[in-house]
Write a structure and sequence with these properties.
The chain has 284 residues and is an alpha/beta fold. It folds into two domains: 8-106; 114-281, no CATH class. The chain has eleven helices and five strands, in the order ββαβββαααααααααα. The protein has helices at residues 30-48, 91-95, 99-106, 117-135, 140-150, 169-190, 197-208, 217-228, 232-240, 249-256, 274-281, and strands at residues 8-12, 15-22, 55-63, 68-75, 79-86. It has a five-stranded mixed β-sheet, covered by helices on one side. It is globular and about 55 Å long.
Length: 284
C-alpha cells in the first residue's frame, strides 16, 4: 500500500510502484511518465522473471531541460528510487533513458556493504544494457559498442589493488561491469550456454529477496553458483578481490566476435564464442 496520499500507483506483475511527482508547474505530461515507468519496470521484470520488489516508492523531481538527470536507490525507511526528470522531456527522450532501469536493477541485489559497491553498480551497469536489448528497447549493436568503448575504463591503474580495494568511479562501474561480462561468458562456456549470469541473478533475487535484505557477498555468490552448477562467481571474486587483474580485452572481443566499431561493422558470427554473445542479448 502506498503511504503517500498524493501518489499514483502502477502495477507490474503483482508489484506496486507508488509514484509521486514534484513538478509545481505540471510541465511533465503524466502519460509520458506512466509509459516510461511501466516500460522500465517491465524490462527489469522480464530480465529477472519478476519485478525485484513488491512495493517501491518512486519519487520524481522535475528539473530543467530534457531527459533523466540521474537517480539513486535507497532503503530508508522503505525501498525508494529518486530520479530527476527534465521538464521538457519528450516520449523519445524517455524511451532512450537508461537511468530508471539501472536504478530498478539495484532492487534485485541484497545490500552487501560499501566495500563491494563495485558489484552493485557493476551489475546495474551491465544488466541495464542486456535487459533493454532483450526487450527491444535498445539496439544490440549499441550495447556492445558501449561495452567495447567503456569496459577498458574498469581496468586497474598502476598502484591500484583488487576490486574490494579500488573504489574509483571507473573500477566501480565499469570494472564491476567487466566482472559481470567475464562471469557471464565463463558460466555459459562451462554450461554449454544452458545457463548464464542471468540464471544466477534470478536465483539470488529469489532466495535473498533483493535489496530489502543484508547479505554477505560470499553467500550471495554461492547462491548464484549453485543455480548454474559452477563456481564461476566465487572463483572470479577470489581472483579479483585483492589483486589488480588485467584481462586481455582484445582477445575477449575477438573470441566473442565483437568488431572494433559495432555500430558500423558486422559482428563475426563464426568467432569461437559468437553463440555466447548472441545468447547474452537474446530474450530468454
Amino acid at each position: 500500500m502506498c503511504t503517500d496520499p498524493g501518489a499514483s500507483t502502477i502495477e507490474v506483475q503483482g508489484s506496486t510502484l507508488c509514484v509521486s511527482v514534484d513538478d509545481p508547474a505540471h510541465s511533465i505530461r503524466p502519460e509520458l511518465l506512466h509509459q516510461w515507468i511501466e516500460r522500465s519496470a517491465q524490462i527489469v521484470a522480464a530480465y529477472y522473471a519478476r519485478f525485484p520488489a513488491p512495493l517501491v516508492a518512486l519519487r520524481i523531481q522535475a528539473a530543467q531541460g530534457t531527459g533523466v538527470r540521474g537517480g539513486r536507490t535507497i532503503n530508508e525507511p522503505g525501498l525508494q528510487i529518486q530520479v530527476n526528470v527534465g521538464r521538457d522531456s519528450t516520449a523519445a527522450d524517455l524511451a532512450a533513458d537508461w537511468v530508471l532501469v539501472h536504478e530498478m536493477v539495484h532492487l534485485a541485489l541484497p545490500e552487501i556493504g560499501r566495500r563491494h559497491n563495485w558489484l552493485a553498480e557493476g551489475l546495474a551497469t551491465y544488466v541495464e544494457g542486456i535487459a533493454r536489448a532483450q526487450s527491444g528497447n535498445r539496439d544490440i549493436s549499441d550495447v556492445w559498442a558501449e561495452y567495447r568503448r567503456s569496459m577498458p575504463l574498469g581496468l586497474p591503474h598502476p598502484g591500484e589493488g583488487g576490486m574490494d580495494q579500488s573504489p574509483t568511479w571507473g573500477r566501480t562501474y565499469w570494472g564491476g561491469a567487466l566482472f559481470c561480462l567475464q562471469a557471464d561468458v565463463a558460466i555459459r562456456e562451462q554450461t554449454h550456454n544452458r545457463a548464464g549470469l542471468q540464471t544466477a541473478l534470478r536465483a539470488i533475487l529469489s532466495e535473498t529477496k533483493g535489496y530489502r535484505a543484508d547479505r554477505d557477498i560470499d553467500e550471495v555468490l554461492r547462491i548464484g553458483d549453485a543455480a548454474t552448477g559452477t563456481r564461476v562467481l566465487e572463483e572470479l571474486y577470489q581472483a579479483n578481490k585483492e589483486l589488480p587483474v588485467t584481462p586481455d580485452l582484445t582477445l575477449l572481443w575477438a573470441r566473442l566476435g565483437v568488431p572494433e566499431d559495432p555500430l558500423s561493422q558486422p559482428f563475426d558470427d563464426h568467432a569461437p564464442l559468437a553463440a555466447i554473445r548472441i545468447a547474452i542479448t537474446h530474450r530468454p
